[in-house]
Specification:
The protein has 204 residues and is α/β, with parallel strands linked by helices. The chain is built from three helices and eight strands; from the N terminus they run H-E-E-E-E-H-E-E-E-E-H. The chain has one domain (28-195): Rossmann fold. The strands form two sheets. A five-stranded mixed sheet has the order 5-2-6-7-8, covered by helices on one side. Helix 2 (89-104) crosses helix 3. The radius of gyration is 24 Å and the shape is elongated.
Length: 204
Amino acid sequence: MRRLALVVTCLAATVVLSGCMLKRSPVPRTYVLDPTEAKNAAQPSAQAVAVIGVAKVGVPSWLDSPTVMAHAAGGEIVADELSRWGEPVARGAQRVLAENLAALLPDRRVLAEPFPPRQTIDYRVEVTIADATRQVDGSVLVEARWEIVGGTREALVRRRSSHRARPTTAGAQGEVAAVNEALAALCREIADAVRTLPPPAVKR
């Protein structure tokens, strides 16, 4: 009986200890990019002057990771294992670019690739993001190469852009919010360039 009681006591202690360890285990948080320009967007025009297509966004493989990444000293890339993306970064960036541009250009129709069959795209926005992470100095940097391509595949605008934002909260939450801010600045730059382009010959 004493041996049985000892076994039962040990099992009970193990269960309690395991429960405490499970309670202490941190739970990963999940984030998605947010199209901040779309929050106060004007109603789109009934008659669009052009159709803008946002191509799939290119990102380096280290950035298109399930975890939120950041730069450390010496060129090190650090993964925050407790902060995860709810969708691939490349897909989220394309979604945010398209929604921000639609808000900034209400007189244009903005579509994200893949485009509907037989849809004519007047101007195609192609973006390759080189960086979109927290830097060693604490700021968040979004660096991108982008171009606007015409209907005959000629590059009408081609630029390299850098936008920085300073997180207002610590950790991944602040980093993601700052990425949203920097992406919004990039979208405003692209939208300004789109406005300088002549309307297509056939109105949509």
